[in-house]
Each structure stands twice: as structure tokens, then as C-alpha cells.
UniProtKB/TrEMBL annotation:
Lineage, uppermost ranks: Bacteria, Bacillati, Actinomycetota, Actinomycetes, Propionibacteriales
Protein's organism: Kribbella antiqua
Cross-referenced PANTHER family: HCA OPERON TRANSCRIPTIONAL ACTIVATOR HCAR, TRANSCRIPTIONAL DUAL REGULATOR HCAR-RELATED
Domain HTH lysR-type: 3-60
Name by which UniProt lists this protein: DNA-binding transcriptional LysR family regulator
Protein keywords: DNA-binding, Transcription, Transcription regulation
UniProt-recorded Gene Ontology molecular function terms: DNA binding; DNA-binding transcription factor activity
Length: 296
């Protein structure tokens, strides 16, 4: 007959306390439930383990012999469970993180701190194509990716969202808007925005290079690029402008290219994504370092 762990635990505590009331308190059970568990265990064994009178509780000879064998076996079982728990929750192996463009300070700091806190898990980083934010995650080439929002993919989980930054319009110094200190989104009416090619989904590419202003005025779609460097090359050639987050714009030092802060558009925001159902201990640890809010 299958042995119930709760019955064994009840017997061990009762053997320590030799008192049904104190045993019930330690196990957060009623005294009647303690009696039921003991009786069930005795039926499985086929003999009496405890003698109970109005004055005292004592182990029978069979109970003493059973206790002697049970204590080390139960302790070994606890160690097995604890070892399995530690193995399941330990951070080890390899964690591969992808990012679009250049890794910002938040990501770099998280990578450095993760490696310091988890020396048994090697963390790798890889640059992702601007035009394919989700492909490497889906293929299993990387475990997670830092990508520009929005993310609306059923098979991917969007974890911590961070690095909310104002957008800028990056244009050639010869562009008609180049001398402005700032512009509004409606100033994009009639302008040409360099677009991002597939395989990124349409809603994501539309967010990076909208075809309408917030009031519905037309924005012309310019040539498509796969990388930021391709986009900057076309900007320098005055083929159109490109929406870029402020830190990326400031780090992009191209001669003849200027960055103009723009209002009236949603801020550029980054998020950490991974495949649904694959939030490993290593990934959870890394996500916590990017954003202290817990996952899920």
C-alpha cells in the first residue's frame, strides 16, 4: 500500500511530543485528524505504534523500532527534495541576451551585475537586426531580447519595460527642419520617413515609421532599411528622416546629420521578451536586474 508522507510526518512529531494536543498544534491540525493519520498508518503497517491512555502517550516496541528506521529515511527524503529544489532554482549554464542597435546603460549594467552575482552562469550578448526583433528569440538562437516596443506576439512574453525616452527626428543638415530646436508630430506632414523592412510585423514597423500624423495628415514612406547604419547613410544623403530615441540619436555621430526633439508622439520604450513558458531561473534573475518588479 502507498505510504502517505503526511502520516509519517504526524508519527514523527507525535514521537517527539508524546502528546496529541501539542502534535496537533505543531502540524496545524485538529487532534481528531492526528488520531486519524496515526490509525491510518497503523493499518498500513498492521500493528500498533502508539499506546494512548488517559494519563500518557508512549511508543510501543514496534513504534520504537519503526521510529529508529524512519528518522534517517525521512531525513534522506527531505535532502532529496531540497537538492532537487536547489537544482531547479539555481542559476547556472548559459544565458544569451540579444539587443537592437547598441546596448544602453541599463542593459550593460544588468549584464555586469548578473555575471557578478551568478558566476556559474555565463551570459552572452548579441546584436539583433533592426528589422527582425523577434526572429532570433523564436528560433532559439537567444534566450531573451531587449527590443523596442510595441510587442503583441502571442508566443512571446513581454517582461520588464524600461528606458522610456523622448523620440527625435534624425535628418540631414540640409533638411528643411534641420534648423529647428524642436518640432511637433504634425510637422511631419508631407515629410518622408525612412522605413524598416520586414520580417518585423506590420504594426511594429508602423510604430517606428508612422504613415500618418496624430491628426491624420499623410507622412510619405521612404526607402526601407535593415539596420540603423543603413538608415543613417540614407539620412546623410538626404533621402528622408528617421525616428530615433534620444540616447541612440546622441550616440550616433554622423557628419551632416542632426537630431531634433519631437513632441506629440509616444516615447520610445524598450522591453525584455522571451518565449512563452521558458522563463528559466537565469532569465528571471536577469529580468530582476533590469527591473526590480517580479515576473508574472
Amino acid at each position: 500500500m502507498a505510504v502517505e508522507v503526511r502520516e509519517l510526518e504526524c508519527f514523527l512529531v507525535l514521537a517527539d511530543e508524546l502528546h496529541f494536543g501539542r502534535t496537533a498544534e505543531r502540524l496545524y491540525l485538529s487532534q481528531s485528524r492526528v488520531s486519524q493519520l496515526l490509525q491510518s498508518l497503523e493499518r498500513r503497517i498492521g500493528g500498533t505504534l502508539v499506546e494512548r491512555t488517559s494519563r500518557r502517550v508512549a511508543l510501543t516496541p514496534l513504534g520504537k523500532e519503526f521510529l529508529t528506521s524512519l528518522r534517517p529515511a525521512y531525513a534522506a527524503l527531505e535532502r532529496v527534495v531540497e537538492n532537487a529544489r536547489e537544482c531547479a532554482t539555481s542559476v547556472k549554464g548559459r544565458l544569451r541576451i540579444g539587443f537592437q542597435g547598441s546596448a544602453n546603460d541599463i542593459v550593460l549594467a544588468a549584464v555586469s551585475e548578473f555575471q557578478k552575482e551568478n558566476p556559474n552562469c555565463l551570459i552572452d550578448v548579441a546584436e539583433l537586426p533592426l528589422n527582425d526583433p523577434f526572429g532570433a528569440v523564436r528560433r532559439g538562437d537567444i534566450d531573451a531580447a531587449v527590443v523596442m516596443l510595441p510587442v503583441a506576439e502571442d508566443d512571446l512574453v513581454l517582461g520588464p519595460v524600461f528606458s522610456q525616452q523622448q523620440q527625435t527626428l534624425t535628418v540631414c543638415a540640409k533638411h528643411r527642419l534641420a534648423g529647428r530646436d524642436s518640432i511637433d508630430a504634425e510637422d511631419l506632414a508631407g515629410e518622408v520617413l525612412i522605413a524598416i523592412s520586414g520580417p518585423a510585423p506590420g504594426y511594429w514597423r508602423q510604430a517606428q515609421a508612422p504613415t500618418q500624423t496624430p491628426r491624420g495628415a499623410l507622412i510619405h514612406r521612404g526607402p526601407e532599411v535593415r539596420t540603423l547604419q543603413e538608415g543613417l547613410s540614407l539620412i546623410a544623403a538626404n533621402r528622408g528622416g528617421m525616428l530615433v530615441c534620444r540616447p541612440t540619436a546622441e550616440n550616433s555621430k554622423w557628419a551632416g546629420v542632426v537630431n531634433i526633439p519631437i513632441t506629440g508622439l509616444p516615447d520610445s520604450t524598450l522591453g525584455l521578451i522571451w518565449r512563452r513558458g521558458e522563463d528559466t531561473p537565469a532569465l528571471k534573475a536577469f529580468a530582476t536586474l533590469i527591473d526590480p518588479a517580479p515576473i508574472g
